[in-house]
Amino acid sequence: MRILIAGGDGxxxxxxxxxxxKRGHEVxxxxxxxxxxxxxxxxxxxxxxxxxxxxxxxLWRETSGKEVPIYIGDLxxxxxxxxxxxxxxxxxxxxxxxxxxxxxxxxDREHAVFTQVNNVVGNLNVLYAIKDITPDCHLIxxxxxxxxxxxxxDIEEGYIRIQHKxxxxxxxYPKQPFxxxxxxxxxxxxxxxFACKSWGIRATDLNQGVVYGLWTDETRLSEGLYNRxxxxxxxxxxxxxxxxxxxxxxxxxxxxxxxxxxxxxxIRDTLQCIELAALQPAERGEFxxxxxxxxxxxxxxxxxxxxxxxxxxxxxxxxxxxxxxxRVEKEEHYYHAVHTKLLDLGLQPHLLSDELIxxxxxxxMRYRERVNFDVIAPSANWR
Amino acid sequence: MRILIAGGDGxxxxxxxxxxxKRGHEVxxxxxxxxxxxxxxxxxxxxxxxxxxxxxxxLWRETSGKEVPIYIGDLxxxxxxxxxxxxxxxxxxxxxxxxxxxxxxxxDREHAVFTQVNNVVGNLNVLYAIKDITPDCHLIxxxxxxxxxxxxxDIEEGYIRIQHKxxxxxxxYPKQPFxxxxxxxxxxxxxxxFACKSWGIRATDLNQGVVYGLWTDETRLSEGLYNRxxxxxxxxxxxxxxxxxxxxxxxxxxxxxxxxxxxxxxIRDTLQCIELAALQPAERGEFxxxxxxxxxxxxxxxxxxxxxxxxxxxxxxxxxxxxxxxRVEKEEHYYHAVHTKLLDLGLQPHLLSDELIxxxxxxxMRYRERVNFDVIAPSANWR
Lengths: 383, 383
Fold this sequence. Notes:
homodimer, alpha/beta, 383 residues, 12 helices, seven-stranded parallel sheet, three-stranded mixed sheet
């Protein structure tokens, strides 16, 4: 299958591109390389050294014999998007190419506006390109579980049947997103739903949980193929960040009480889910929503898990610090999200193991000289 | 009260500004005047002649003795927004300043992107200005009943109590908007809800129905104060357009079967609702949603009503034509929307009367030489 990976230089996009290429799909990457600029803006870098996209792709060609053409450009520029679609004629587009950090979107007004315009316009352009150039192409769009917020009822997969005053309907699940970033994904979801209905586009919205882990079969093959991993207060996410903090003798920073419960998955399951969605596409006109995660944990639980593994396996005594929560969110709440649709399609989950935590701590110890401790504290405030 | 009217040169904004000024409020207008450019883009103009904003305001000063300062600029430009908020220090902002036509947003990709960026960024800038400059200021934001779509259950005012798997919560009412324009308002609503929660802003989202009518006590005082009225396929809305079509011997154009049911209100009730919301503001941190309409009608019903009045009162035999529906929408559906909150605040509705239709037809006959018949047919297609 001809699969276009938008955002193929990023944390999820790069390993997905390699995985699908390895599995015999014809893969191309679109990326503006802006993620690397954000590192410079924030004075940070990936814990692991990462090669340039050109070098990565050249090395992949040597390693696997597979070509992965790259298109460098911004999805906000429609003539660029048009050229990519006309040339590559994708059968599926996996759309990772958005600003994906909640704290980044909350830095200030400029970052909020940038995040929403970048994400919404890029996504609208992809929708128009599908409509006008490759109408049968399946859009596989990365959403986030954060679109739902933390309602006091079970979170369903995109839709909910509501009985109300003696009548009933199945309606889009109500959204209560956590940040201007999460809001941008809610805006995207609504735009895509409308495009499916009006234009007969086929789309799958993957409301992904927090992704942890780093290594996949392909990225571990050689240093030039390594994936990025972020530990900073803006792009670093829980679990990955905790492991790096433990490895570098930094306290594990939990925001507030830590009772915030979120959905998580291993990056290897991201790759599986994307391929499952691609091979079993949505129907024309269908807007399909999957909750893409495998387990839920509270932040405190995760910190304690890392603390225990660090002590047992590395003899590291990691402290857990509760910082003033920079975010506006409930710190104790009900959380139960349904996630059966990807399992029904064949997902074989990699549940969180101590071994994975060991591997992350190990990796962090190997690259500890690359860590800038000044950027670990949260720098964006929700208030 | 110091009230800023964003979009104060438009169809709803101008009469609202005059009404509030007349009622003793200190009113200022912000407008980019872009609505007048869209007329040029589309080769149309208001049925009624309208004076320039400068002349309107000068005439209002002569007529009423009241000053209404004007700020000409674009809400997308934050330095401009900042200056307006610092100088005027509004206690309430009535935000009409958005691209408000569904067909305009559906013309093509450029118009879709323009509509969403213009509306979302302008609104984000207003939210940041309130947060940073006038945190106690009440945002009165114009939404639309079209945010809800046509669910098969009753439409509530912004929120719905949902029982699900033995638990319950009150959640934002699910949205199924009809166009990229309606989607932009849904995006705004989500952004405002978040800003209220995070920053403690006070906001009222007015999900307004289709506004009909033209004259208010203030705009009818003299030709220089006249309000605009649109009859073209892009900005003209049902009822107003039907009256103008009847007056000019044009068939009344119903899209599809005409079973589409929508919520309507008289423009004089828009003015009342705005003042009621301003005088009884939302609490700090509250995101309040009112459904702002007084009656619901199907499009076919309205066309028949105009047809009957035209025959009885003007001896005009207006034909009703069913055009292929350019929109993707249900043409027969359940529709029942709750709208009690503004009544509770004191709204005294002007229900649709034959007299109002007579007055609209009369006005249209007076200005029929201004009508360009080439722009009445729908020009944007949803498919």
